[in-house]
Amino acid sequence: MVYVHVPFCRSFCVYCDFYSEIAPSGSDFGFFVDGVCREIEHRKEEIERSSGVNTLYFGGGTPSVLGVPDIARIASAVSDKPFREFTVEVNPEDVVVKGPEYVEGLLEAGVNRISMGVQSLDDGVLKWMGRRHDSARAREAFRILRDAGCDNISLDLIFGIGGMSESSLSVTLDEIIAMRPEHISAYQLSLEDGSLLEEMLEEGRYEEAPEEVCAGQYGHICEVLRNAGYRHYEISNWALPGREAVHNSAYWAREPYVGVGPGAHSLMKWPDGRQERFWNDAKLSGWASSGEVLTPAQIREETIMLGLRREEGVEIDGVRRKIKESDWFVSDSIISGLL
Question: CB neighbours of 224 closer than 8 A, spacing ≥ 6?
């Protein structure tokens, strides 16, 4: 499985701390595509070792600033065979501006899943977030995706915003369910270091929502989506039966993956038993990769943490055995408390 980080945005949202740069004017991203293709060629061995889950994911940033030929060229560099799941994240405004031809081009290039950041259908909330689209454009973008033949759409929502009314969240949920996307992700707004939101908080221009309010909104989302027939298969993700995200599910199962592009991360598992994490420099020119070999303790912690995010949970007896066989001194009572 391969992740491509596209570090370009037309504007920045208040909450974001992902590495991104303002997209260059026009549509010439050849310098970026050249760099990504060079990295892919350099890392062919890693890509082959991670091909057990045959997926490709374009995230960002805003991948939909790229043209179809850019996306197709990178995909061809990864593999000349179809992917089981090929996802591109899109911004509603890009979908509307570029029109049906853009979506049709993505599908022809092999894309079979679209993830769209709607976040809210309340225009006041969207404006506060710094989103480029309004609710009408989000609705229009969804219609364009459907009419173009996209039958696997994921929509992102954000809750836990200070000052957001309960009715705003309910209206958004009701409309999203009426659209009937195959997949829905809902994330609680978090305060990230270096984000504009952090600056607003420090200056007294924003007040975080209380924990009990966030918990109540999350519970409401869980109940509404369950009643609408969506399976809550991961802590922040719901899907119609059989439409769970293959690529992201592999992350949570700690399958090997290769991240290419500035700021991307990777996880490799080598034949000698080593597990190694890599991360690329967060810069557009001449990015390089650094890494670390994960310790047994780090692997165990990640396995438990990621497992507890999923509906399946963790296999208790296996984790207990690994802990007791390790260099950790943990009593049975502590283990039972942890698990």
Answer: 170, 173, 174, 177
Q: Please write the tens of the pLDDT for every residue from 51-72.
A: 788 999 999 889 999 999 999 9
252/313 Cα distance (integer angstroms)? 11
CB 2 within 8 A of CB 258: yes
pLDDT band at residue 329 using 50, 70 and 90 as cut-offs: very low
Q: For residue 128, is pLDDT > 80? A: no
Contacts of 227 (CB under 8 A, 6+ apart): none
Distance CA 220, CA 241 (A): 20
Pairing of strands 289-293, 2-6: unpaired
Q: Under DSSP, is residue 56 helix (H, G, I), strand (E, B) or coil?
A: strand
CA separation for the pair 188, 159 (Å, rounded): 5
Pairing relation of β-strands 275-280 and 289-293?
Answer: antiparallel
Q: What strands lie across the sheet with 153-159, from one edge to the other?
A: 231-234, 237-239, 183-188, 153-159, 113-119, 85-90, 55-60, 2-6, 258-260
Give the integer Cα–Cα distance in Å for 257 and 287. 18
Give the residue among 109, 108, 129, 111 at the shortest CA–CA distance from 120: 129
Kind of pairing between the strands at 237-239 and 183-188: antiparallel
Structure tokens belonging to residue 243: 């439409």
Q: Which residues pair with 264 in a beta bridge?
A: none
**Prior bond of 130 cis (ω within 30°):** no
